[in-house]
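Hi U.,

Before I forget, here's the chain from the pilot set. I'm dumping it here mostly so it's searchable later in email.
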Amino acid sequence: MKVAIAGAGNVGRFLTEDLAGNGHEVVLIDRDPDRLATLPPIEGVRYVTADACEVSSLQAAQFDEMDVVVATTGDDEDNLVISQLAKMEFAVPRVIARVNHPKNNWLFNETWGVDVAVSTPHLLAGLVEEAVSVGTLVRLLQFEGGRTRLMEVTLGADSPVLGSEFGSLVLPRGSAVVALVRDGHVVVPRPDAPLVEGDEVVLLVSAQCEDDEIRTLLLQGS
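Structure:
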């Protein structure tokens, strides 16, 4: 896979080393030549000194050949511009953008060419809630500009589905169970396996399905 990473800060450097270590071809772009000069040569990695907000720079970096572009700079405006250019000018199949300021999260959507927006504060909040919440619905991650989301529900003692067979769950349209975590382990339940208190149900949900529909089914009952 060919990956372009814009921004040679801590995040960009880590991603570069990690992806290259897994056999991917990586182009790391940064406008600061001194920053790139301090980086060691890595097999499969090409360093490009350029402004990733300029079309000519992205052409030189061969963005038209990329499978994935990741905008990881510390400036949200730059990340939006890079994402839009990658998607609109070079038709990159998958564009991932870092959100530095949580209040800007709403901007990182398909209008700006963003397929996946990664907001560290939102992820941390979700993980904190996931760790301490039982009987609640927690959004873990959003994809496709918010049109698809990953959520987790931990079944409490009053869940209406306790004792029900896993195969009997009738989920709202636009949702699907992707994992069931029980006692800290991912399990593949049999259709006749009963749901028990403490089960963590992980679902992939599209925009057509409302959170309240999931709450009603798994937490509150009719």
